[in-house]
Amino acid sequence: MGFIPLKLRGGRSLCGAALRVSPAPQQGFAESPRPALADSPSRWRRCGWVQAVLLTAGAAITALFYSVYRQKARVARGLEGARKVRLDGDLRAVLLEAPGRCVPYAVIEGVVRSVKETLSSQFVENCKGVVQRLTLQEHKMVWNRTTHLWNDYEKVIHQRTNTAPFDLAPAEDSAGVTVRVMKPLEATELSLETVYEKFHPSVQSFTDVIGHYISGERPKGIQETEQMLKVGTALTGVGELVLDNATIKLQPPKQGMPYYLSSLDFESLLQKQESGVRFWKILTVIFGVATCAILFFLLRRQYRQRRERQRLRQMQEEFRQAQERLASAEGGEALKNACVVCLSSTKSCVFLECGHVCSCHECYQALPEPKKCPICRQGITRMVPLYNS
Q1: DSSP assignment, residue 347?
Q2: How far is CA 106 from CA 177, 257, 262, in A?
Q3: Among 172, 194, 161, 182, residue whose Cα is nearest residue 115
Q4: How many CA atoms lie within 13 A of 47 on its CB side?
Q5: Per DSSP, what are the bridge partners of residue 273?
Q6: DSSP 344
Q7: Which of 126-130, 249-253, 342-346 has the lowest average pLDDT?
Q8: Is beta strand 179-181 parallel, antiparallel or unpaired with respect to 234-244?
Q9: What distance in Å separates the CA atoms of residue 6 and residue 19, rounded to the nearest whole number?
Q10: Per DSSP, what are the bridge partners of residue 120?
């Protein structure tokens, strides 16, 4: 029993399909031949699952990046639309005219001035500030069981922040209007200067080294850092400006906008936010295009499979109709002389050396190389045309 190409009316062939033919198709049609796809369905299903997972992951990442981009763009637009005020005599009049004596989102620039006492550095002499942050950070190497490599690991084991009340005052006029800065630790960007930094390496004995290799952790040492917001530092404050009795206060805004106390000037701060917006926008566009490409290939694959199934069903229907025509033909002469491959044309070839007369000329040409007789599977060395007079 062998496989040979299926030929239909009009010279069409069924690509990727094969017809199982009985070696003795002389007595009726006991079994209806069925074309079968050569490609494995499981392979197509695996490809479909992979594409579906990629499509879902791409859509989720794109949605995440888009939400971050929208948030960054909203912050940049709010920062660009913030009202710029100056530390001069007109500031109090501006707040008196504002609704509720409040500017919801304002930008103000000045230098740091302490209200009462200042904080002194624990390590640097004559270093005064209003915000002090002391940090102890542990550095060690950790063995990664997956990559079989030693990776650097950092952990903050202690951190303490001290604050003192301070104002923003104009740099050129020490006796001008000042603005009291409230809740500086809630600022999104609080610019602190590192005034002291020292690394204390760990001292290890030989037994400690062996124990660390066994445990998978190798301590490197402790890093001690002191950061301060010095008196006289130029700051750009962005937040809610309020006139409370006789005191002008800068505090975190109530509209969900970020609170800034940055050492950058306003233009540099705005450019920094806009560059972040562009970065997230580019990421969103890249992943969006990749997701659309995956969706296009997935839909294209589904469309091609659907067309292939339709074409296969059409060929099966034509084959069934050809069988019915031959079965309902008067007498057995038409069935006896029909080609065993297409069952529609008349036998017109003699195969040598076996001598079987079983195929038409079109089906003989469609046989795969090396050509073999469809009946006995013997190799065909020569074909002799058969002419019926």
Answers
A1: P
A2: 16, 11, 14
A3: 182
A4: 13
A5: none
A6: S
A7: 342-346
A8: unpaired
A9: 6
A10: 128
Q: CA–CA separation, 161 vs 129, rounded Å?
A: 12
pLDDT digits (tens, 9 = 90+) for 263-310: 888 999 999 999 999 999 999 999 999 999 988 988 888 899 899 999
CA distances 178 to 29, 30, 89, 225, Å, are 104, 103, 10, 31
Which H or E run includes 20? strand 19-21
Separation of alpha carbons 141 and 246, rounded Å: 56
pLDDT tens-digit series, residues 2-61: 433 444 444 444 333 333 333 334 333 334 444 444 444 565 566 667 778 888 888 899
Which residue from 7, 103, 15 is spatially nearest to 312, judged by alpha carbons? 15
Nearest to 76 by CA among 237, 234, 282, 258: 258
Amino acid at 204: Q
Q: Are 359 and 2 in contact (CB under 8 A)?
A: no
Contact by Cβ (8 Å): 66, 59: no
Q: Is 372 helix (H, G, I), strand (E, B) or coil?
A: strand
Task: For residue 190, count other CB atoms closer than 10 A to its CB.
Answer: 19
pLDDT tens, residue by residue, 227-246: 999 998 999 999 999 988 88
113 class by beta-carbon count within 10 Å (0-12 exposed, 13-18 middle, 19+ buried): middle
Phi-psi region of 148 (alpha: psi -120 to 50; beta: other; left: phi over 0): left
- Token pair, residue 319, equals 């084959």
DSSP summary character for residue 375 = T
And the tokens for 137?
């950070």
Return the H-helix or E-strand segment holding 317.
Answer: helix 266-327
C-beta separation of 141 from 220 below 8 A = yes
Question: Looking at the DSSP assignment, which residues form a beta bridge with residue 152?
Answer: 141
Q: Determine phi and psi for 254, rounding to 5 degrees.
A: -95, 5
Residues contacting 179, CB < 8 A, separation 6+: 87, 91, 108, 110, 167, 168, 169, 237, 241, 248, 249, 250
- Tell me, what amino acid is at 139? H
- Mind spelling out the 3-state secondary structure of 164-220? CCEEEECCCCCCCCCEEECCHHHCCEECCEEEEEEEEECCCCHHHHHHHHHHCEEEE
Angle, alpha carbons 370-373-376 (nearest 5°) = 125
For 174-224, write each residue's pLDDT tens digit. Answer: 567 889 999 999 998 888 999 999 999 988 888 888 888 888 888 899 999
